[in-house]
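Posting this for the archive.
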Amino acid sequence: MSTLNQLEEMIFLVAKALGHELLQEVAFLGGSVTGLLLTDNITKEAVRYTDDVDLITNVIGRPQWVKFQERLRKQGFRESIEDDINCRMRLKNLIVDFMPDDENILGYTNRWYKQALKDATPYNLRDKLIIQLVTPVHFIATKLEAYKGRGNNDPMQSRDIEDILNIFDGREEIAQEIEQYSDDVKGYISEEIAKLLSNQDFEYAVQSASQNQPEREALIFSRLEKVAHYN
């Protein structure tokens, strides 16, 4: 089974366990959904493996979060003593992170989660199972924000940057989609991409993403530079 198929199977298992009602309250994002956002088949086959599935949800306050967790347990999700991450649950052996868009609940969040959840779009996974999937633009915004928090200014070692570059490589329309998005998201992405382009190590990350193919590397840089000039 290819990495892409493994990731889709993981998403399918989580979605099926959640059931119809909870599926309306969450959106899938993170590295596991990268392949779902790609339109280029070659890039799809190059997506990285990740061992977890990430979701965002809107809950207001700690009491509502506790109730949300109780509902997840009824669907077969469990906390594990192996985990020290307070948003993490398990579905059998599968790692699933449920992240609220309210920073006050767990003490952290991503500034784009709330908007990403609001703008998520239906995606027909398979067998008529519909999930809410973050838009490609918000995928990039959330990944850029995550990189700022945990990337140590090292694009070569960052999985977030790897995922971002896969989108720029494997989604032909991404620059146009960013250009047409709301000014706050567009401006943020443009500014952060410009910063990355000024990082001397970023070129090596792009070379890696392109698998050292000069034409693909030039294509990725072309799309990145276009976005960097939106601001």
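The chain has eleven helices and six strands. Residues 3-134 form one domain.
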